[in-house]
Write a structure and sequence with these properties.
The chain is α/β, with parallel strands linked by helices. It is built from 15 helices and 14 strands. The strands form three sheets. A seven-stranded mixed β-sheet has the order 3-9-8-7-6-4-5, sandwiched between helices. Strands 10-11-14-13 form a four-stranded antiparallel β-sheet. Strand 1 and strand 2 form a beta hairpin. The longest helix is centred in the last third of the chain and has 23 residues. It is globular, with a radius of gyration of 22 Å.
Length: 411
């Protein structure tokens, strides 16, 4: 292989620059099924970095359901949904998902996707396509997930839509822009639970603005579905919202423990997504065995076990908020399973993660561009499979590591 061509030199240079800035990412192999104990490089590590919030990813009932689904439906769908890949398992799941949100969205209908990324791209680009080119305006929260940001960029490029970025903690600027906006189609896009800070979007206020200024409100509830609300239906249940303006996206690979995502909205909006959603139209349908397994997971989420696991998870969060304190690092207050610790520099965040690894914990450093410059952090996440003792021990280890790093800085 010749190494003289320009693209090869460019990629080597770009990777070297990432390494120099301490921004290069690495893949680690977990040799065990997803749980709070991982096996990495022959060592057992206690994981506080998974999105398996209810501990369902290796639940025996769901393992059995996947096998059952494969026996009944095979291991592949064979085509996109609009060709021949839409199975009875997909249809049953979509009806079940629509029922979960029916108290919040009138005439609710759901559409199942293989990933949340595809769901977000589909929802934003297709909805903006309702307006003529240049006649739609998207309002996107500054700290939205990458999939939302990419959906907004793609919709803006495809449909010449205007874009306004707003601070979800200060909605005065957003309202000021909406007051002046005469666009026939306005779409507010926001995370329900912000994945890096763990705080909840102010959906009551946002829905009020959407109703006042004739906008749609799209909520990506990736980190809320399954854990928020009395029945685990997510952030709409948590805030008791109800509106035909809501476009709801839920993820099924986090608290639900399986894979995929869904869009739920009023029936006409879903029908439009089926007609015009390119990622939906041109993607092979998720294996029906996955849809079958997700249905079983939804039963667990709504049932006695789901309620018990949510209760335990909230007890872990309460313990953390009561007992975790730092002298230098910043703990962001969160009532969710996402508990960020702001350390600052990339170097210090990487060092803290390395010291945790040496102590038997897996909590990666989160660095730019995922978070803003100077806000590198540890992102601690809890699972219902963690024990109270697990959290207490983690608190002790983190406080010791912070103290040791402060001593090192002083030296």
């Amino acid at each position: 292989m010749s190494h003289s061509f320009n693209a090869y030199a460019l990629v080597k240079q770009a990777i070297a620059q990432l390494e120099e800035k301490l921004l290069k990412r690495t893949v680690r192999i977990n040799e065990r099924a997803c749980n709070v104990d991982a096996l990495v490089g022959g060592r057992v590590l206690k994981t506080f970095c998974s999105n398996d919030y209810l501990g369902f990813a290796n639940h025996p009932a769901l393992v059995a359901a996947l096998s059952e689904g494969a026996q009944e439906h095979g291991v592949g769908s064979g085509a996109s949904h609009l060709i021949s890949g839409h199975s009875r398992a997909h249809d049953l799941l979509e009806n079940q998902l629509a029922r979960l949100q029916s108290a919040h969205i009138p005439h609710a209908r759901a559409l199942f996707f293989s990933t949340g990324y595809l769901a977000n791209l589909t929802a934003i680009t297709s909805l903006i396509g309702l307006a003529n080119k240049g006649e739609a305006h998207i309002y996107s929260a500054a700290l939205n997930h990458a999939s939302l940001i990419d959906g907004v960029r793609l919709a803006s490029a495809q449909h010449q839509a205007s874009v306004t970025i707003f601070d979800h903690l200060d909605l005065a600027e957003l309202e000021g822009a909406l007051i002046k906006d005469t666009s026939p189609l306005k779409l507010i896009v926001i995370d329900g639970v912000f994945s890096m800070d763990g705080d909840l979007a102010p959906l009551h206020q946002l829905l009020k603005l959407a109703e006042q200024y004739d906008a749609l409100l799209m909520v990506d509830d990736a980190h809320g579905f399954g854990v928020l609300g009395e029945n685990g239906h997510g952030i709409l249940e948590h805030f008791a919202l109800h509106s035909e303006r809501l476009i709801y996206i839920g993820t099924l690979g986090k608290a639900a423990g399986v894979s995929g995502a869904f869009i739920c909205a009023e029936d006409s909006f879903i029908e439009w997504l089926i007609q015009k959603g390119r990622p939906y139209i041109y993607t092979t349908a998720t294996p029906p065995a996955i849809a079958h397994t997700v249905s079983k997971s939804l039963n667990l989420i709504e049932g006695i076990e789901g309620k018990a696991r949510r209760k335990h998870l909230n007890e872990l969060i309460k313990l953390w908020n009561q007992e975790m304190a730092f002298s230098s690092w910043e703990k962001i207050h969160s009532l969710t399973a996402i508990q960020p610790i702001i350390i600052g520099s990339n170097a210090n965040a990487l060092l803290a993660s390395k010291l945790l690894d040496e102590a038997g914990y897996w909590i990666p450093a989160i660095r730019p561009p995922t978070v803003p410059e100077g806000k590198a952090r540890l992102r601690v996440t809890f699972s219902a499979n963690h024990t109270m003792d697990d959290v207490k021990k983690l608190i002790e280890v983190l406080q010791k590591i912070e103290s040791s790093m402060l001593v090192g800085d002083a030296a």
